Amino acid sequence: DSGVTQTPKHLITATGQRVTLRCSPRSGDLSVYWYQQSLDQGLQFLIHYYNGEERAKGNILERFSAQQFPDLHSELNLSSLELGDSALYFCASSVATGGYGYTFGSGTRLTVV
Amino acid sequence: AQKITQTQPGMFVQEKEAVTLDCTYDTSDPSYGLFWYKQPSSGEMIFLIYQGSYDQQNATEGRYSLNFQKARKSANLVISASQLGDSAMYFCAMRPWPQGGSEKLVFGKGTKLTVNP
């Protein structure tokens, strides 16, 4: 157990639907990062939150949004889902900005049918 | 922009032998960190080893070592005495250290390692 908890582990949903992926960072970690892993695009950075504030955005679609709550857990919301959104979504956490220790969760495998 | 290149889509090695997985990177940042992660078929990302750009010595973690050649911008992973459980995808990643920026990781495409008995 890495200490980073992602739920659910698997999610199957239909096109056009909306889903929420949840991440609880390791105790004491203030930064949360979301990554998408697909066969064609590889591992892509989506967004970074630090202590509740958005720090950076990567290749995140406008249909996707995220937030980090006061208890530091984070949610990634995916809406108007398309077949191409099927991927493994990872959350990672680290202690603070400037620290190099990343810990990944086990991922949420999203299948859009 | 930062870029990681892993030129070996797949590698095969015999059990108990050593194997080197290649990684080259491109960055204009003076400071950065280099990482290797292992992703078994179960999907989780497992941190293996880290090398800072200003570290004088190559990083080692058990059977893993990182052959860091800064002038050549390469950060190859060496796995000694391969085990069947080492069969997995291996990703090289880089984290730039821009001032006031985000410490996101940039990943390579990965190398699939297969250890044969």
Radius of gyration of chain A: 13 Å
Strand content of chain B: over 45%
Helix content of chain A: under 10%
Give the radius of gyration of chain B. Answer: 14 Å
Class by SSE composition of chain B: mainly beta
Q: How do the helices and strands follow one another from N- to C-terminus of chain B?
A: EEEEEEEEEEEE
The chain-level structural class of chain A is: mainly beta
Low-confidence stretches of chain B: none
Q: Give the overall average pLDDT of chain A.
A: 92
Please state the average pLDDT score of chain B.
92
Q: Which chains make the largest contact?
A: A-B, 27 and 25 residues
SSE series of chain A: EEEEEEEEEEE
Distance between the termini of chain A: 30 Å
Which residues of chain A sit in consecutive blocks of at least 5 with pLDDT less than 50? none
Number of strand elements of chain A: 11
Shape of chain B: globular
Question: What would you call the quaternary organization?
Answer: heterodimer
From the N-terminal CA to the C-terminal CA of chain B, the straight-line distance is 41 Å
Could you describe the 3D structure shown?
- The complex is a heterodimer of chains A (113) and B (117).
- Chain A is mainly β.
- Chain A has no helices and eleven strands.
- In chain A, a hairpin with a 5-residue loop joins β7 (64-68) and β8.
- Chain B has strands spanning 3-5, 10-14, 19-21, 24-26, 32-39, 46-52, 60-61, 64-69, 74-79, 88-96, 106-107, 111-116.
- In chain B, the strands form three sheets. In chain B, strands 2, 5, 6, 10, 11 and 12 form a six-stranded mixed beta sheet that branches. A four-stranded antiparallel beta sheet of chain B has the order 3-9-8-7, with no helix packed on it. Chain B has a two-stranded antiparallel sheet with strand order 1-4.
- In chain B, a hairpin with a 4-residue loop joins β8 and β9 (74-79).
- Chain B is globular and about 45 Å long.
- Classes of the chains: A mainly beta (113), B mainly beta (117).
- At the A-B interface, β4, β5, β9 and β10 of A face β5, β6, β10 and β11 of B.
